[in-house]
Amino acid sequence: MKTGGQLIVETLQANGVKRIACVPGESYLAVLDALYDSGIETLVCRQEGGAAMMADAWGRLTGEPGICMVTRGPGAMNASAGLHISRQDSIPVILFVGQVQSDAREREAFQEVEYRRALTEVAKWVGEIDDAARIPEFVTRAFAVATSGRPGPVVLSLPEDMLTKAVDAVAARAAVPVESHPGPGQIARMEALLAQAERPIAILGGTRWNAEAVSAFQSFAERWHLPVGCSFRRQMLFDHLHPNYAGDVGIGINPALAKEIREADLVLLIGGRMSEMPSSGYTLLDVPYPKQTLVHVHPDPGELGRVYRPDLAIAASPSDFVAALSASVPTRSPAWGDRTRRMHGAYLEWSTPPQTGPGAVQMGPIMEWIEANVPDDAIFTNGAGNYATWVHRFHRFRRFATQAAPTSGSMGYGLPAAVAAKTLFREREVVCFAGDGCFLMHGQEFATAVRYRLPIITLIINNGIYGTIRMHQEREYPGRVSATDLTNPDFAALAIAYGGHGEIVEKTADFAGAFERARASGKPSIVEIRLDPEAITPTRTLSQIRAG
Fold first, then answer.
1. pLDDT surpasses 90 at 179
2. What is the β-pairing status of strands 228-231 and 200-204?
3. How far is C-alpha 61 from the geometric centre of its chain's CA atoms?
4. What is the rounded CA–CA span in Å between residue 96 and residue 27?
5. Which of 36-45, 98-107, 293-302, 496-505 has the lowest mean pLDDT?
6. What is the structure's pLDDT at 112?
7. 302 vs 178, 181, 269, CA distance in Å?
8. CATH numbers and ranges of domains, the chain
9. How many Å apart are CA 151 and CA 125, to the nearest integer?
10. What's the CA gap between 66 and 44, in Å, rounded?
């Protein structure tokens, strides 16, 4: 006989869970007790949204479900911000939520929420376990749902009395991964379409990739001399210095690359949905009938034909699809090799940062220093804001599992993601980019980094405004500034108050020394870069945007 709390933990162990993120609550004390001697690492976080974002980062970087536990009511609602990221980004996450006791249900009891109504929009499946004996069934199903097809978050609600009840239940077993292999005929058809093309391009995105698949697709691209772009915030899927790399297909796309995609006669879309941001507002491909021949590879059949009608639809995960390409060799040398080289040259030019701009701090030289001094295996994280342009456009990603950033554009993600990344890869450098507005969405998780001695380096680009909103505001309502100015703390002093290391950069020349001291401190660090608000984008100032 075992309690529901013990069965939850045993089922996690059976599925290979090594760590969870949580904010504790009395509603699931029985689970916390079972975790006590389980060997599962428990990261105690400071806000449920940050905990859910940490779980998302684990799922994003490993492909295995990130696990998060929160208490009922307000705890669950805070965590829903992380669920939305995981849902839109196709990341496997399992969120366990405490629930009121069964005899108080449907009375609007203390902190009661009906999660099956409240969270369905941001989860693949929301379930509630009323019978402790069914815990192995429910949790095993949660792992299967979170990782199969298009991955995403699952929510399991745990009534408090169910967790303390002792029952006789079957021993838990690990969930079995659901694979989806392309048929030989589909691979042959894809090769025939590619051989007939004159202006093809591949666009990589989505999840269910791994390091082996990334390497294998690079070899396929080499054999076919194929230009390759990466979808929004999926840039770690192809080496940016490889001669076949054409650039990122996302917000602020290189106009030259956008033109090549619009004029392509074949698009090989692997893993991604080509949603609003990577498609430039659904303009790169016509909806529902693209002008280009479209080969769409996605693990969820429900996504194939949902927005774009493909000429060839292949229901397969990226890793399974790429594995089937190992013997794919063109019968003659493709004629588009010069075009591929030209596209890579255009990317290199586009990703070379400017050297000048308004103010005493120039982000272009700072990015050049980072490129020269941060290892290729460093993990970069960020949330949302104009500051992120400096990472996405000018950092050249070289390896898989080096990027954690939300395609959903959620602010506050970067710091929790950096904390999570450092728990996974303690030997690798982790650099978080954040704006001053973005950081304070979940800046309290810096305390989590200090607690667990995780020496992340956080670069706060401080311009004293909600930059993206201000940019749009000046464009749409020039000179009428409303609700976009900020008053900030001394972020370096804040880092020290938490027990970390803090630096302030007020001139470009100060950055290298500040970063090196942060690195040498061995502590979680904040390097506050005080940027002139005029430097709102790499190419245009606020005044220029205001002038139209």
1. no
2. parallel
3. 8
4. 11
5. 98-107
6. 85
7. 16, 16, 15
8. 2-167 (3.40.50.970), 184-349 (3.40.50.1220), 352-547 (3.40.50.970)
9. 11
10. 15
Pairing of strands 403-404, 457-462: unpaired
- Of 120-129, 330-339, 431-440, the poorest mean pLDDT is in 330-339
Q: What is the pLDDT of residues 146-168, one digit of tens each?
A: 999 999 999 999 999 999 999 99
pLDDT in tens, 201-259: 999 999 999 999 999 999 999 999 999 999 999 999 999 999 999 999 999 999 999 99
- Burial class (CB within 10 angstroms; exposed 0-12, middle 13-18, buried 19+) of 533: middle
Q: Which residues pair with 465 in a beta bridge?
A: 485
Task: Using alpha carbons, list the distances in angstroms from residue 546 to 173, 461, 465, 470.
Answer: 61, 22, 15, 10
Is-above-0.90 flag for pTM? yes
What are 72-94's pLDDT values in tens digits? 999 999 999 999 999 999 999 99
Q: Could you tell me where the DSSP H helices lie in 272-334?
A: 318-323
pLDDT at 76: 97
| CA of residue 29 relative to chain centroid, distance | 31
Q: Cβ(531)–Cβ(462) under 8 Å?
A: yes
Q: Strand, helix or coil at 192?
A: helix
Residue 126's nearest CA partner among 106, 103, 145, 104 is 145
> What DSSP designation does 326 have?
T
Residue 295's beta-bridge partner residues? Answer: 268, 312
Backbone CA torsion sign across 485, 490, 491, 497: negative
Question: Closest Cα partner for 383 from 418, 349, 359, 350?
Answer: 418
